[in-house]
Design a protein that fits this description.
alpha/beta, 6 helices, about 150 residues
């Protein structure tokens, strides 16, 4: 009888796990996160931007090597702001050289407010689940694909 209840408990747990719904990812623009950080506090988001891991574009900026996700490459080059801080995952740290200086999409949890030297920042991304390269500024995606004849610029 005790064995029956153990099997029932384990089966119930496995069944509940199988039907558990994961929180949806909200695709959001970096502009929206900067403009309305409180609206997205604690939400799981997918956001795209120019990733600077702190060692190539701005090696001396702010005296810190904290990763930032900028709206555009120019924002990083000219220290214009328009960025969120990022707590990199272990995989991001391993792939640092492949990711820095690229346009990426990051899925993680948004936290409103500054952090460390970025006390004035709108917020940042924590608990990063994935970071995928979208485009290399030196070889943009648009240059790798040909547009249909009707869409080509004249």
């Amino acid at each position: 009888m005790q064995r029956y209840f153990r099997c029932l408990a384990v089966g119930s747990f496995l069944l509940a796990s199988a039907f558990r719904t994961e929180e949806p990812v909200e695709p959001i623009s970096l502009i929206q996160l900067i403009a309305s950080p409180d609206k997205f506090e604690g939400k799981r988001v997918s956001v795209s931007g120019f990733l600077e891991m702190g060692d190539q574009v701005r090696p001396q900026a702010y005296g810190n090597k904290e990763p930032l996700l900028y709206l555009h490459r120019e924002d990083a080059l000219h220290w214009l702001g328009n960025a969120l801080w990022v707590e990199p995952s272990a995989e991001m740290k391993r792939k640092r050289r492949e990711l820095t200086g690229m346009y990426v999409t990051i899925i993680g949890r948004f936290r409103a407010g500054g952090k460390g030297h970025l006390y004035g920042a709108a917020g940042g991304i924590t608990a990063v689940e994935s970071c995928i390269v979208l485009s290399d500024p030196n070889r943009p995606v648009s240059e790798r694909y040909t547009l249909p004849a009707g869409l080509k610029q004249k």
